[in-house]
Amino acid sequence: MGQLRVEKVQEFIKQEISKLILTELKDPRIGFVTVTRVEATGDLRSAKVYVSLMGSDDQKAETWTGLTKSLGYMRAEIGKRIRMRFAPELSLHLDETLEYSARIQELILKIKQEEGNQ
């Protein structure tokens, strides 16, 4: 498979899962979620879906549970929407880079404020 095709499928899956989470998943446990990236294998048989979760630790845990329970539905919907013989097997992975970036930004601002007060 060409790398370009894999990248197109990854982007398609990312967009469709984002839409599904936003408009179609009715699980009340699912809070604020951002699909940050999708990494598909070269044969497109499986795809890792990286998500960033916002909220308290309890809210994140509830969202994670809701998303995990919805994986089968999401795969079936991707299968209906993608023009391939099969839908990739989806797996969820937590992407903490946004949270990490926010924490670094917070620390930088704190340092700048402390320097300004001296």
Summarize the structure.
With 118 residues, the chain is α+β, with helices and mostly antiparallel strands. Helices cover 56% and strands 19% of the residues.
Topology, please?
Elements: H1 3-24, E1 33-40, E2 46-53, H2 57-69, H3 71-81, E3 89-94, H4 97-116
Parallel strand pairs: 2-3
Antiparallel strand pairs: 1-2
Helix pairs in contact: 1-3
Structural notes for this entry:
This protein is of the alpha+beta class. The protein has one domain (3-116): K homology (KH) domain (GMP Synthetase, Chain A, domain 3, 2-Layer Sandwich), CATH 3.30.300. Helix content is 56%, strand content 19%. It contains 4 helices and 3 strands, in the order H-E-E-H-H-E-H. It has a 3-stranded mixed sheet, with helices on both faces. The longest helix has 22 residues, at 3-24. The N and C termini lie far apart (59 Å). The relative contact order is 0.17. The mean pLDDT is 91.
Helix content: 55-70%
CATH architecture designation: 2-Layer Sandwich
- How many structural domains are formed by the residues? 1
- Report the principal-axis shape: elongated
Beta-strand segment tally:
3
Number of continuous helical runs: 4
**Main beta sheet, described?**
3 strands, mixed
* Arithmetic mean of pLDDT: 91
**CATH class, please?**
Alpha Beta
Assign the CATH topology.
GMP Synthetase, Chain A, domain 3
CATH superfamily: K homology (KH) domain
Strand order of the largest sheet: 1-2-3
Give the topology string: H per helix, E per strand: HEEHHEH
Low-confidence stretches: none
**Through-space gap between termini:** 59 Å
Range of strand content: 15-25%
Structural class by helix and strand composition: alpha+beta
Based on CA atoms alone, the radius of gyration comes out at: 18 Å
